[in-house]
Design a protein that fits this description.
Shape of chain B: globular
Largest sheet of chain B: 4 strands, parallel
Oligomer: heterodimer
Order of helices and strands of chain A: HHHHHHHHHHHH
Distance between the termini of chain A: 77 Å
Largest interface: A-B, 87 and 98 residues
Number of helices of chain B: 24
Helix content of chain B: 40-55%
Strand content of chain A: under 5%
Number of helices of chain A: 12
Distance between the termini of chain B: 40 Å
Largest sheet of chain A: none
Structural class of chain B: mainly alpha
Number of strands of chain B: 8
CATH architecture of the largest domain in chain A: Up-down Bundle
Number of domains of chain A: 2
Strand content of chain B: under 5%
């Protein structure tokens, strides 16, 4: 089939993804500063994080120079994102399914990025290196699809039959897994049935980048691309956006141990927040929508 | 009720107990506490109590919630609850925890990785309603269905359904007091979702909107502290009298002159104790006085309300009560013109004043530096100003890590360095430090004793801690060897006191409990008499 109709749908779906993703990111980032709620271990605590220690262990800590290690923080996040460290340490049975499920997606994302990169390199498809690259990407994609299928089916079974998970699994969670399974399965079918999977994907990528409507895709590859893009557009509306939320839950909550003293920007932000009118109705607060936080917190002193 | 509890069951079978605690299900303890038939008998909830108070969760009544008089009243509470949920989601009313709350509501993937981290859930034998995600999932569904636009349409497919009625609210109220807010579950969550925070926010809806809170933490807690000066009921005169008595008594006993300084302007340190120490464990403030005086530190206590009491129960249930008390502590320090505030051996006072309230101190002028007594004690012990003889502490010692000090503030090593130096037979519990188990009395539980709640605390919420303590002393299980459980937190000590009494542990296993400063003083060369009294009732 010609690429034209798919191309139009693709632009719409990609636009939905981009706009929603940016909107959600801004929304999370613009949430107000909160009271301190850090939780050990905080990995940027140099020389202390391995046992859960913090700068508050120092005598007269406010007079000492903070020793932070952003490398330790990055290493922690790397292990958490790519190896699912938390699940491995605390829920190993689930890790055997969750890891292939996630890693399959990482491999596929990597393969997609490589496809787009080589799609814009001049004559890459014609050179002998291009053929090797194509084979490597196709193998990567096949690995990604297969381990993705294994993980997804395993997770579906666990979610449907494990009493620990069943009670806490909504219809949408099952739907999401089935959606992803469809993506993985059509991917495998595309590799098996399309005459030149990598060639078609490269052609589709070029069409997207250069708005070239003249290409042709085999039916199964077109279906796979459509499912992938539908999933992409749907993703920011779901809990699967946790890969983005995780940045904020870790960096802004669990590891946010910045003291207030000396931080003028934070102080001003909190002053503004404290000046907001409050409407809590409990009798001991006597909030009537006219008093702000400061009024209530200092009431008895006036 | 049945065992296979579903999320939506919380709104069904209004007056029935949803999921009772079965003693036979509890995690087994080591010998000689391993016989289920020898477990202490729980106080019975009588029919007339059930007629007066709601008892529809687990057969335990912690909060004495009266039954509504009619359906109108039930409806009123349901409406208030929805109103509170909506306020909880606004910046104006809840900027204090909005970001962590919304992220925890939206991005839990239900993987249940947190489950085994909860000492209450596992200690109870995995009672479904104590699962850290159960309460959170109920809350999440209620928020999505009743506090968000279009929630009623989406709830069945997208979020999972639930009904909001009197049964839901009354059970959820009790259930918000079945989690110690220890945040051990949050530590294991791959998404950094915080079920402890959700419990905290749930308590806030009840307190800040409906005016419901545990009497011990509100009326007899923050309200009393703000009115009289201390949740113990001591006014400034009483606290000074009591401390004077402690000074005299200890001076006489040890043959040295001990004087606690009060309201010393320009002192270097304002020390704020949990005032409960002065009444229940006077040896603790006495030991502080001995150490600080011996080290030549310039320090003072304050007799100003409420700054002779470091407790701040607002931390557990109400942001406004938290702020009121914290601001008063800071004001006192400013008036005395001290260089810093040192928080005594009280875990939640550490967290409230050192970190959580930090962000309401909006100018550097008022941001009086605050630090833990543990770092100060480490500085003193290793300064060479006091001579120690560790052989005076040559008995088995283990350390309980208060959650608010280790997990929440990351203060793990100073207390250990002291214990390794001064206690030749110091041994760790497992797990330890920031991964410790809560004592079971966190978030106000240690001071809550109504009906059969104290039975629940000792049998269920403290169970894994008890097992840990016994395991740490497994090389000397019997009473013939005296053993010391060091707990540098008043709240934890209150819980451990009740736990050890409940199971008759001093008699059966020879374990007593106390703070860190008592061990330090006991090892001082200049203190000739033993400071730790094994024969006294703890």
């Amino acid at each position: 089939m010609t690429v034209m109709p798919l191309l139009i749908i693709s632009y719409v779906l990609i636009a939905i993804f981009v706009v929603t993703f940016i909107y959600k990111t801004i929304k999370m980032a613009k949430l107000p500063i909160h009271l301190r709620w850090e939780l050990a271990p905080v990995p940027h605590e140099k020389g202390k994080s391995h046992y859960g220690g913090s700068y508050l262990e120092e005598y007269d800590w406010w007079t000492k120079k903070r020793e932070k290690s952003l490398i330790d923080e990055a290493v922690y996040m790397g292990k958490e994102i790519f190896l699912l460290k938390g699940v491995f340490e605390h829920n190993k049975k689930l890790w055997y399914l969750s890891f292939p499920f996630h890693f399959g997606m990482y491999v596929l994302t990597g393969a997609a990025v490589l496809t787009f990169i080589f799609a814009v390199l001049p004559s890459s498809l014609l050179s002998s290196e291009g053929l090797i690259v194509g084979s490597v990407i196709e193998i990567l994609a096949a690995i990604g699809f297969i381990i993705g299928i294994v993980g997804t089916i395993g997770l579906l079974i666990r979610r449907l039959f494990d009493p620990n998970l069943k009670n806490y699994t909504s219809g949408s969670a099952i739907f999401n897994l089935i959606f992803l399974l469809a993506l993985f399965v059509t991917g495998v079918l595309s590799i098996i049935n399309a005459p030149d999977f990598y060639g078609e994907m490269t052609q589709y990528a070029q069409s997207l980048i250069f708005a070239n409507t003249s290409g042709v895709l085999s039916g199964i590859v077109a279906v796979h691309c459509l499912i992938t893009l539908l999933f992409l557009a749907y993703l920011p509306f779901t809990k699967m956006l946790h890969f983005l939320a995780k940045y904020f839950t870790y960096h802004e909550v669990r590891w946010n141990d910045s003291p207030m003293a000396g931080n003028k920007k934070m102080q001003q932000e909190v002053i503004d927040l404290l000046n907001q009118k409050v409407t809590w109705a409990a009798p001991h607060l006597k909030a009537d929508g006219e008093k702000n936080w400061v009024d209530i917190a200092t009431e008895e002193k006036k | 009720m049945k065992k296979n509890i579903k999320i939506e069951d919380i709104s069904k079978y209004k007056d029935e107990i949803l999921s009772p605690v079965e003693v036979a299900d509890l995690v087994p303890l080591p010998s000689p506490y391993d016989k289920i038939h020898e477990e202490p008998t729980w106080k019975e909830i009588k029919d007339d109590q059930k007629e007066r108070m709601v008892c529809n969760l687990d057969g335990v009544i912690a909060l004495n919630l009266p039954h509504p008089e009619n359906e109108e009243e039930e409806k009123k509470y349901v409406e208030q609850f929805v109103s509170g949920l909506k306020k909880l989601l606004t910046k104006e009313n809840n900027w204090t925890f909005l970001q962590p709350l919304l992220l925890s509501i939206e991005y839990c993937v239900g993987c249940q990785t947190c489950n085994d981290a909860c000492p209450i859930f596992t200690g109870s034998g995995r009672n479904e309603i104590y699962r850290p995600t159960y309460r959170s999932e109920v809350f999440r569904r209620l928020v999505k269905k009743y506090a968000k636009p279009g929630g009623k349409i989406l709830s069945k497919f997208s979020n999972g359904d639930i009904e909001l009625n009197w049964a839901t609210i009354s059970r959820l109220y009790e259930l918000s007091y079945r989690c110690t807010l220890c945040r051990r579950c949050a530590q294991t969550c791959p998404m950094a979702v915080d079920n402890g925070l959700i419990t905290h926010e749930l308590r806030k809806v009840f307190s800040q909107e409906l005016g419901w809170a545990a009497e011990e933490v509100h009326d007899k807690g923050t309200v009393l502290q703000l009115e009289v000066g201390s949740s113990t009921g001591m006014n400034p005169l009483a606290v000074k009298d009591n401390m004077e008595f402690v000074d005299e008594d200890t001076s006489e006993e040890l043959g040295i002159d001990i004087k606690t300084p009060w309201d010393v302007k320009d002192a270097e340190i304002l020390l704020i104790h949990n005032a409960g120490e002065i009444i229940s464990w006077p040896e603790n403030p006495a030991a502080f006085a001995i150490i600080l005086n011996a080290a030549g530190i310039s320090w003072t206590l304050s007799s100003e309300e409420p700054s002779y009491d470091g407790v701040n129960y607002g931390l557990w249930y109400d942001d406004f009560q938290l702020a009121k008390i914290a601001l008063k502590h800071i004001e006192t320090a400013k008036r005395l013109n001290v260089k810093k505030i040192v928080v005594g051996e009280c875990g939640h006072a550490h967290k409230a004043l050192i970190t959580v309230a930090d962000r309401i101190l909006t100018d550097d002028e008022n941001n009086v530096p605050r630090e833990s007594c543990l770092t100060l004690l480490e500085e003193i012990v290793f300064s060479g100003k006091i001579e120690f003889d560790p052989s005076k502490n040559d008995f088995p010692v283990t350390l309980h890590d208060p959650c608010n000090i280790s997990r929440n503030l990351g203060i793990v090593e100073p207390q250990r360095r002291i214990l390794r130096y001064l206690c030749p037979q110091f041994r760790e519990m497992d797990p330890k430090g920031a991964e410790n188990y809560c004592c079971g009395g966190g978030s106000g539980f240690a001071i809550m004793n109504r009906n059969n709640f104290s039975d629940w605390r000792s049998s269920v919420s403290s169970r894994l801690k008890f097992k840990q303590i016994l395991d740490a002393f497994s090389d000397h299980p019997g009473p013939e060897v005296n053993k010391y459980l060091c707990s540098p937190c008043s709240n934890c000590k209150g819980e451990l006191r009740d736990l050890l009494e409940y199971y008759d542990v001093k008699e059966k296993s020879g374990i007593i409990y106390g703070g860190l400063v008592e061990l330090i003083v006991n090892a001082m060369v200049d203190i000739k008499e033993p400071f730790i009294k094994w024969e006294e009732d703890f």
